[in-house]
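Anyone have tokens for Bifunctional oligoribonuclease/PAP phosphatase NrnA? Sequence:
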Amino acid sequence: MDKNMDKIINYINEGNYFLVTSHVNPDGDNIGSTLSMYYYLKSINKEVYYVLDDDTPINLKFLLEDIEILSSEEFIKLNLEEFNLIALDCGDLNRICIDKTLIENAKKLICIDHHASNDNYGDFNYVVPEESSTCELVYNLFKKINEKENTQVIDKKIATALYTGVVTDTGKFTYSNTHPSTFDMAKDLLILGAETNKVICEVYGNNPYNYYKLLGEALNTLDIINTKIAVITLTQDMLSRNHVSFKDTDGITPYCRDIENVEVGILVKEKSSNEIKISLRSKNYVDVSHIAKMFNGGGHVRAAGLTVFNETIENATKMVVAETLKYI
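Reply: yep, here.
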């Protein structure tokens, strides 16, 4: 991986114009890794644009208060003759959350990611599925730059962005993807000025009242199957009734898994009448990425997701539960 990092560092140093982006349905690692790369490129006087065709969850907006995120349409209007694309935390080329023409027209595509499903789709790839988060990979890259150039890349803003990504992707350092290197990273970021208390308060301690009304209603749908599978369902009516955006519901997912004897938690979310998003979480032995792949989804061993199109929420649930039972 050292050679891969060196190639990326050298190419970034040679380039001038960069577009940074990530996957659909932004999360902490998505925004933390993309934002930290954006700040770094700015610091070395590169022309950089943060482009994402999706909304930001309310609990992550604090990271982006001074950042302009462009839509693909807005970026295209800039009429840049040449640009390089850096895709962070995106395990699949098709999940990059920008217009496909931008992917096709980029001079080079740099992929930095930790999803096991990643097939190294970039021209330059730094992909390590064993790492806790893409933010940890970006942190490693910045440490490499520090060593090569005898400088300190990580300032307070970058440290805070990276800390947000590693905290959220490890479930506050409780998931099995947390390694000794993860704690070393967190310690270093704290020393470098990461606003750790702000991150915890904003991400986990600032949910609106309506979110808890929705959570109560969602928990009433809880269904336990064969003692090992727990399913919670969120419908469009529930979201509308409680005035909660679809993108602000990821915090409900752990409630499916964190039940005595349950191995796999399934959160079923109705995004529209013909699009059902399903999040999978496991505790000990089920690799939920295999289940997700059966429905053209993907992710990690203990956390994965998929989308079912043109099915009712009931049928989509039955299909995924039936597949999950094969692994129990």
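The longest helix spans residues 28-43.
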